[in-house]
Amino acid sequence: MAAISSTSKTVKHMPSFFIIIILTCLHLTAAAQVSNVTFDKPITITGRSIRIDSLLKSFSRQTGVEFSFSTNKISPSQTLTVSKQQQTLSQWLITLRKDIGIQHKVVSNHIILFENNQSGVFTPHKRPTTGTSRIIPPKATGKSSQKPSPTPVTILIDSSQPSQKDTFFQQPAPPVSPANATAQALTRKKTTSTKKAAPSNSTNPPTPLPSRRDAPQGSPAGEPADEAFQLIAGYSRHGSGDMDGIVFGADYTRYLSHAFSLNVNIRGTINHDKDDYTYTNPTTHIRTDASVPFTTAGAQLGINAQLSALRSIHHEIMFSLGGFGRYQSASPDGYSVTSPQTSGNPEFLFNFYNWNKQNTISAGLLFQLHYNFTFNNNLLLGIKGGIQTDTEGDLIPQAALSIGKRF
User: Fold this and answer.
1) Which of 10, 152, 191, 352 has its CA 20 to 30 A from that of 282?
2) Tens-digit pLDDT profile for residues 176-190
3) pTM of the full predicted structure?
């Protein structure tokens, strides 16, 4: 009875044990392989040419798959000319193979790039620690005894092909003597997307590239550029005198992160107005314009902190706040006029007054709201509105258009 009870308990627990084993294997298989969905995922870059290392960083960031290559075989500064800026990962890998002869192989959740060779098969320099082997008896010859070093063979997995077949590459074994003939091992290693890569002892190991979670949020390929230069021109209104005019200038922007940037700018404003006076000479009957014009102009240099609420390859909405130093020159503050009827003279008589300095230097604050649109060639068009004030009490609302270039 004790034996029957023990056997019953064993049988009772065996289904649960096998279910756990099966679920664990399925989980490891799903986590380790690069799925077809990854190869079909679209990847977008900007510009017409890109370095190989920048392209692979974009691949890694947009797919979550790690890429690596040996700098002894492939130059990171090698440039790929791009004819189509949005392709799937599979199409990009085909482009690399056709244009500059770079092959790839998939090892677990990792893609390794290597230089193309004549056979089209990637052969590692070191024997892997895993794999299956088969003993093949060698043919006896009359030459000296040698123990050949078995060569592992790696299968290339090309995502561009509809089906993947096992491909083996076997180097011929050197001859051995009959007296010292031993079994010659030929190791065939089949690398699939469900097995982990064997450790490499090569003197030039592949250089791993950062995954999406480790990539810095700046301006690698596929993201907006880190710098921009703009020229602006638009409308301004000098609030202290209610004078209409223009604003113009130039901006340089440097992004310190994906959403935060600093902007150095130079601005100029010219605002004007006039009081209309006309009179008719009673003797000559000629009508004369005696209007009094007013002009206020200034130049300023400032720096702004900018926060992008939305930033993509083409669109950007941004807020900015910064300070500036301003030099300004203005017309007289006021005047008095005596008409011809009062003075008895045929012309108006004017007296001008200056209560403030003609030329002033002040400090101020500028707040702006920006929208920028970037074309595929990094040409930048935008619109911005803002308001500024300074220690002289001048309030200047402004709205402007901008054109520039990202780089």
Assistant:
1) 352
2) 554 444 444 444 444
3) 0.48
